[in-house]
């Protein structure tokens, strides 16, 4: 059983680790439901959502749109400001924003706040389609 106590105090990189997996599942399910059947095409489309650059753009847009509540913003800022390694494939700022999106997704999942997680993912997927 997952400990639901003090989730917001958990290590943000741990939240991001889980959030990365949860986010990937949502994206894959969404793309499959779009009728994409070839794995190569699924992978090409997934990159539009799961790359650090895409995730950074998504989170900054959602922050600018005041989508997140105070606790979610606390998680996001902690993740963004957390000391981290230098990424190979992107700049550090993009990486930190991408990590903050994954952290808030991990947080919502651990809190079992699936309604809010679904709302976040619907917003991401609908905004990206348009």
Précis, in short:
The protein is mainly alpha-helical.
Write structural notes for this entry.
The protein has 130 residues and is mainly α. The chain has one domain: Ribonuclease III domain (Ribonuclease iii, N-terminal Endonuclease Domain, Chain A, Orthogonal Bundle), CATH 1.10.1520.10. The chain contains six helices and no strands. α3 crosses α5 (92-110) and α4 packs across α5 (92-110).
Instruction: Look at the structure and give the mean pLDDT.
Output: 90
Task: Give the DSSP E fraction (strand runs of 2 or more residues).
Answer: under 5%
Give Rg in angstroms: 14 Å
In DSSP terms, counting alpha (H) and pi (I) runs of 4 or more, how many helices? 6
Distance from N terminus to C terminus (CA atoms, Å) equals 39 Å
The structure class reads: mainly alpha
What string gives the helices and strands in order? HHHHHH
Note the main attributes of this structure:
6 helices, mainly alpha, Ribonuclease iii, N-terminal Endonuclease Domain, Chain A, 130 residues
Secondary structure elements and their pairing?
Elements lengths: L11 H22 L5 H12 L1 H13 L5 H12 L10 H19 L3 H16 L1
Helix pairs in contact: 1-2, 1-5, 2-3, 3-5, 4-5
């Amino acid at each position: 059983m997952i400990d639901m106590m003090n989730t917001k105090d958990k290590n943000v990189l741990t939240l991001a680790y889980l959030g990365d997996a949860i986010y990937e599942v949502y994206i894959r399910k969404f793309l499959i439901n779009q009728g994409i059947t070839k794995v190569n095409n699924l992978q090409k489309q997934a990159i539009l959502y799961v790359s650090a650059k895409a995730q950074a753009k998504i989170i900054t847009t959602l922050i600018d749109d005041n989508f997140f509540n105070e606790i979610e913003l606390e998680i996001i800022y902690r993740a963004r400001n957390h000391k981290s390694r230098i990424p190979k494939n992107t700049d550090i700022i993009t990486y930190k924003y991408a990590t903050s999106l994954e952290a808030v997704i991990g947080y919502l999942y651990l809190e079992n706040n699936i309604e809010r997680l679904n709302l976040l993912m619907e917003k991401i997927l609908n905004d990206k389609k348009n």
